[in-house]
Design a protein that fits this description.
Glutaredoxin, 7-stranded mixed beta sheet, about 40% helix, signal
Length: about 170
């Protein structure tokens, strides 16, 4: 009995899909040592060294984003709206990009996204082990990554992701 073509190729297709899914899951890791020593510039242009240990017993969510990334922008707008409505505390959610501060300032002003913790960094995403954005990392009180997600999240999922990991 001769098998139809699609049945012959089905195992190969399944292996390719599973392999691709595993690749996508594993591609973003965070080089915590490099991350802990980042030099940051906030949205006002003030230089700072990342000190993720300053809040005792407080987890933080860090979003890595870019002004050209539509899913990143949607996440930022969802968090901004939740902050404005008092559902999320802005001081425990940070947005970090590699883009120049003047570009970030213009972006924030154009979209009226003031009040968020937004930074530019002195490194490229790849230097931190991040292969794609949007990338969200949950840091424990010691600055260690305890959870992460890569890729598009709906507005509701973005807000619930933040609320799940940080106390308000």
């Amino acid at each position: 009995m001769k098998l139809p073509f699609f049945l012959k190729t089905l195992p190969v297709i399944v292996l390719l899909v599973v392999g691709f899914a595993m690749f996508c899951q594993a591609q973003n890791t965070l080089d915590e040592e490099r991350f802990m020593s980042l030099k940051l510039t906030n949205e006002k242009g003030t230089q700072a060294v990342a000190d993720w240990n300053t809040e005792i017993n407080a987890q933080k969510v860090v979003f890595f984003w870019a002004t050209w990334c539509k899913p990143c922008i949607m996440e930022m707008e969802a968090v901004h709206e939740a902050v404005q409505k008092g559902k999320i505390s802005a001081d425990k959610v940070h947005f970090i990009t590699y883009e120049p501060i003047n570009k970030v300032q213009a972006f924030l002003e154009k979209r009226s996204l003031q009040g968020l913790q937004v930074y530019t960094m002195d490194a490229q995403l790849i230097d931190l082990g991040i292969q794609s954005i949007p990338f969200a990392a949950v840091l424990n009180e010691k600055g260690e990554m305890v959870q992460s997600e890569t890729g598009y999240r709906s507005n509701a999922h973005t807000v619930s992701f933040v609320k799940k990991y940080v106390e308000y």
